[in-house]
Amino acid sequence: MPGRTRSQDAGMFPAGAQSLLRSMNARAVLELIHRDGPIARSDISAGTGLSKPTVTLALSTLLAAGVVDETGYAHGRPGPAAALYRVRPASGLSVGVDIGHDRINAAIADITGEVRARTQAKPKRRRDTLVAQVHDLIAQLAARMDATVDDLVHVVVGVPAVVHPDGEQLSLCETLPNDGIGFVRALREALDVPVTFENDVNLAVLGERSSRQDAELSEFLFFSIGTGLGVGIVLGGQLYRGVTGAAGEIGYLPGDDPSVPATPPHDRAMIKDTLSGQGIVEEAAARGMDAHLSGREVFDRARLGDERALEVVDVIARRIAYVICSLTAVVDPALVVLGGGVGLNPDLLLDPVSRHVRAMSPFAPSIEVSQAGKDAVLLGAVSLASELARDTVFSAASLASPAATAGA
Predict the structure, then answer these.
(1) Which of 8, 95, 151, 319 is the most buried (most CB within 10 A)?
(2) pLDDT single digits (tens) 262-299
(3) Residue 116, H or E segment
């Protein structure tokens, strides 16, 4: 039987397979540098299991692509000082934006996720002016990094709305201009870079998780109580959004108090009608307190020992416990985190909420106040934006061929 020809061998081992292998090797090197850098070439070889020549080829590709650079030398080892490699921070800039009810917060991060600059403003109330305002805030942040909006790899925008699975349609967003109609498309066109929209409480979950840096925290709820209500749900370590993106819209649960007047077409008041900043005001007024007091002022009076204000706090704590018990019976989380303007009052709420939960239910998850605080949504937006930017940059750099990058 005649031997195989070189052309037949080439068919068995196509060039594409070698390209894929180089790409996988470069990505493995890049991920290790991101995780453990600054790191020496020999340690990269040991950490990835790749040979030193393979690591050298991958590094030459990544250096030429501009995603990795040298940052000093490792001393104290036998032989010549070894160069240390890191992911170049400016190789993938991203921005996170939190469009709140009364404040826009935005921050720019480098490819490692480190926040490099922040800004804030009071939101405009018309769609076109709000779009222009968000664009300008992002441009200002980019300029602080000697960049432009066009240089950004990804932007994540948190909105007080249900974001449908297509990432385009918003609902339940009364606080956005025109109920959010046309906002997603208009902002994407204005920025002309990849933009991801996400529900603000879902982002708060990501911000809380990044703040805690707890690898074991795989089942927990983030309960945001403030101007609006929402619960972010993490199951099996993953954010749960539901079929339509509306998971966690607990404001539409029937309320726990049948004496509260219902809003048509409902025959019973919804939780959103009784558990909010406005709900605090109404409970205070029902007890003869000044109807012009804000929810914050009612809580401040409770801290001073005002008996009527303390009664209001207890009612709000019971309603929070009602929601926690309802969710715990279904989800069985290890932890419930309280956040939002109302939730961030541990001195007043933690003890009574825990007491009411124990009285209502045999299930008793740990209940804590957010460690991310008022920045939870913004931190979550930044975390997601930098993760998406990193994946884009790493994928492009890993796919670059040595010949192409050498000639760049």
Answers:
(1) 95
(2) 666 666 678 888 887 888 998 999 999 998 999 999 99
(3) strand 115-121
Give the pLDDT confidence score for residue 2 in this predicted structure.
47
313 and 218 together in one domain: yes
Give pTM, 2 decimals: 0.87
Among 287, 302, 345, residue whose Cα is nearest residue 320:
345
286 is in which domain, residue-wise?
211-371
Cβ-count burial 137-174 (b if 16+ within 10 Å, e if not): bbbebbeebeeebeebbbbbbbbbbbbbeeeebbebbe
Residue 404 falls inside a structural domain: no
AA identity, residue 204: A
CB atoms within 10 A of CB 267: 8
Domains of the chain: total: 3
pLDDT tens per residue, range 144-178: 999 999 999 999 999 999 999 999 999 998 889 99
Collapsing DSSP to helix, strand or coil, 311 comes out as helix
- Is there a domain that residue 248 lies in? yes
pLDDT beyond 60 at 382: yes
